[in-house]
Write a structure and sequence with these properties.
Layout lengths: L5 E4 L2 E4 L7 H8 L12 H9 L2 E7 L14 E10 L4 E9 L8 H13 L7 E4 L6 H7 L27
């Protein structure tokens, strides 16, 4: 059984096709106050970042064929990016839906598509993410839990902020 690479709902599309990704749109989203964990960077770097990841792009489909004329593709309105070997490990980052599209269940759907995709990997050992607050969406849809984990809570996660971090070190 093959794993889907595209999901459709109403006038929206989620796709893992790299050809649909729009680095300029992602960088524009990084300028938004609601994307507090990132800042805009050079577009060639955004392109490289996206190419080196498994990305679930969220797109608004045109409402009519006449609105397609002159466009390269549907408008990118969200993203969920996995840094992964696509076998045993996945780190989820840069999950967003543009403000004007929130409240429609698109973020939940985006995470459900990520979950459906990674659960097809029989050797997946761990999926991780970092968030600034408890988020029931990730717990319910991905089954993630806050650390500590392991027998007697002996597993630790280590981290260091880099030069590009916009969050307090």
């Amino acid at each position: 059984m093959s794993t889907p690479t595209e999901w459709y709902r109403d006038q929206y599309l989620i796709s893992i096709s790299p050809s649909l990704l729009q680095p300029a749109a992602v960088n524009e989203a990084f300028k938004s106050d609601s994307i507090y964990w990132a800042k805009p960077i050079g577009e060639p770097l955004v392109k490289k970042m996206l190419e080196k990841s498994l990305c679930f792009g969220l797109y608004e489909l045109p409402s009519s064929t006449s609105s397609i004329a002159g466009k390269n593709g549907p408008r990118q309105i969200g993203l969920a990016r996995l840094i992964t070997d696509e076998v045993s490990f996945a780190y989820l980052t840069d999950v967003y839906v543009l403000d004007e599209f929130q409240g429609k269940g698109l973020g939940t759907w985006l995470i459900e598509c990520v979950e459906a995709h990674v659960m097809k990997w029989p050797e997946l050992r761990r999926i991780m993410l970092i968030t600034s607050h408890t988020n029931k969406l990730y717990e319910e849809k991905l089954g993630v839990k806050p650390f500590p984990q392991g027998v007697n809570n002996e597993m630790s996660v280590f981290s260091r902020a880099g030069l590009g971090s916009v969050l307090p070190h």
